[in-house]
Amino acid sequence: MENSNYFPLIAYAIYIPLTLTLTLFVARNLFKNGLVFMRDIFHQREDIALSTNRLFEIGFYLLNFGFALWTINMRYVDNQQELVEELSEKVGGFSIYLGFVLFFNLFLFFRGKKAAKAQRVA
Q1: CA angle 65, 71, 73 (to 5 degrees)
Q2: What is the pTM of this model?
Q3: Can you tell me the distance from the alpha carbon of 56 to that of 48, in angstroms, rounded to the nearest whole number?
Q4: Greatest alpha-carbon span in the chain
Q5: If residue 50 lies in a helix (H) or strand (E), which one and from where to where?
Q6: Domain chopping of the chain, boundaries
Q7: Quick one: which of 108, 109, 113 has its CA closest to 43?
Q8: Helices 46-70 and 80-121 meet at what angle, rounded to 10?
Q9: What's the distance, CA 74 to chain centroid?
Q10: CA 26, CA 116: separation in Å to the nearest integer?
């Protein structure tokens, strides 16, 4: 027997930890590997590379945690099927958004690396 009063609470209890964990996973991997680009961009000046990388990481967290919470509003669900469908739509949409943000950050890293290389040649 299903009690539909609990489905919205269950949806939020799944959505919030899932999107925040997904954001943490992507951020840790992006900025751990992005530090290599930052070192190159800042000509091996470790202090500036670390500081800049950390600032980008904080901005990434703020942007993505904020977006996850801003888009939390869900349609009313009153059975398990609707719960799974609503969560799939919300988490899938957030994952696509997070992928775009990831690729935009990679674009910025590569652009910075290219500019640093051009500056060294000049």
Answers
A1: 130
A2: 0.83
A3: 12
A4: 73
A5: helix 46-70
A6: 4-116
A7: 113
A8: 150
A9: 20
A10: 25
Phi-psi category of residue 3: left, alpha or beta, with phi > 0 → left and psi -120 to 50 → alpha: beta
d(CA 69, CA 63): 10
Rama region for 23: left / alpha / beta (φ>0; ψ in -120 to 50; rest) = alpha
Tens-of-pLDDT digits for all 122 residues of the chain? 456 678 888 999 999 999 999 999 999 999 999 999 899 888 889 999 999 999 999 999 999 999 999 999 888 888 999 999 999 999 999 999 999 999 999 898 889 888 888 887 77
40 CB-near residues (< 8 Å, 6+ apart): 113, 116, 117
